[in-house]
Design goal:
The structure holds two protein chains of two kinds. Chain A is α/β, with parallel strands linked by helices. Chain A has five helices and eight strands; from the N terminus they run E-H-E-E-E-E-H-E-H-E-H-E-H. About 6% of the residues of chain A have low confidence. In chain B, strands 2-1-3 form a three-stranded antiparallel beta sheet. Classes of the chains: A alpha/beta, B mainly alpha.
């Protein structure tokens, strides 16, 4: 190793990224906005053929760029530690942006709306497949029928190893709680991995 | 929420009659990079922290490049720069990569893997927010 295990300092801060995912309209923007210290939006311009004819109303010939809005939040944890939150784009046609967003992330939070539970399947599949620590935040919408978390777990088809937490994306304390739960999950996954490696080396 | 950060998107003002016939004031994003869409430097994540050398302030840089070296006198992420400049991430990546190649900007070294104590620190700091 190249001896990069230094502790962060004010002169050399560390940036940590958490990805907020889930279906379109599940509350990602609200979630990020509840805790971010800045305006929670950033845009990405992608060169894509896919958008032609879908959102191109300008009749400009040869337009091949589309601008995607991404949720973005920043939280200064201390003078040496910055936490960035990024929302994945909700529409499937922007799924090609995911690898870029997720690369290097500490972990992910998949928000679920119990009225449209299937919208979260692509995100869950993605994080399971890429072995990225994630937890599920069941966002409570006013008026939505409340389910027991275990019912939601069954409907999602995720194992007991994936933590589910209830949350209210509008509420800062609730959002904090979800972020804390994710860091706990990251620590659990890390311990499990270390134990597996230790068991493996005993052979 | 305030305005949507389009590249070059200016609210139409009554004092600029020249724009009256222009229904699309949005500058094509990659105009700022002469149409280039691929950065010269790989590995620029949205959260990658960048820092400009103080000497870069006296370099003959213009427009977005100039703003970036001003902003990055303290470490700034690609995403922070995108918000500050109101320019899409993909465009910022191209400009930032050029500035790195020219030696005006450097990537802030990050730990290869976060230590357990650092993750615990993140958890405790979030809890204390």
């Amino acid at each position: 190793m190249s001896g990069r295990s230094r502790e962060p300092s004010a002169a050399h801060p560390v940036a940590v990224k958490i990805v907020i995912s889930g279906g379109f309209g599940v509350g990602k923007t609200t979630f990020v906005g509840a805790i971010s210290e800045i305006e929670p939006l950033v845009t990405e311009a992608e060169l894509t053929e896919k958008s032609i004819g879908i959102d191109d109303t300008s009749a400009v010939s040869g337009k091949t760029t589309t601008t995607v809005a991404l949720d973005f939040g920043r939280i200064t944890l201390d003078d040496a530690l910055l936490l960035y939150l990024f929302g994945t784009p909700g529409q499937d046609r922007f799924a090609f942006l995911w690898d870029d967003l997720v690369d290097g992330a500490l972990g992910s939070i998949v928000l679920v709306d119990t009225r449209r539970i299937e919208d979260s399947f692509p995100a869950i599949d993605y994080f399971e497949e890429h072995e990225i620590p994630f937890i599920i935040g069941v966002n409570r919408f006013g008026g939505a029928q409340r389910f027991q978390l275990e019912e939601v777990r069954d409907a999602l088809g995720v194992g007991a190893g994936v933590p589910l937490v209830e949350c209210d994306a509008r509420d800062r304390e609730s959002v904090k709680n979800v972020l804390v739960s994710l860091t706990e999950e990251v620590l659990v996954k890390r311990t499990e991995k270390a134990n597996r490696e230790r068991a493996g080396s005993a052979w | 929420m305030s305005s949507f950060p389009y590249a070059g998107g200016q609210p139409p003002t009554t004092s600029s009659p020249a724009q009256d016939d222009d229904e699309d004031p949005v500058v094509r994003p990659f105009m700022l990079t002469n149409g280039r869409t691929q950065p010269l430097h790989d590995g620029l994540r949205i959260e990658t922290l960048l820092r400009a050398a103080p000497a870069a302030l006296s370099a003959p840089l213009r427009f977005e490049s100039r703003r970036i070296v001003e902003l990055a006198q303290a470490p700034m992420s690609v995403a922070d720069l995108s918000v500050a400049l109101r320019v899409p991430l993909g465009v910022v990546r191209v400009i930032v990569a050029d500035l790195i190649t020219q030696g005006f900007l450097s990537v802030e070294d990050q730990p290869a893997e976060l230590s357990t104590s650092l993750i615990e620190r993140i958890r405790d700091r979030v809890r204390a927010l």
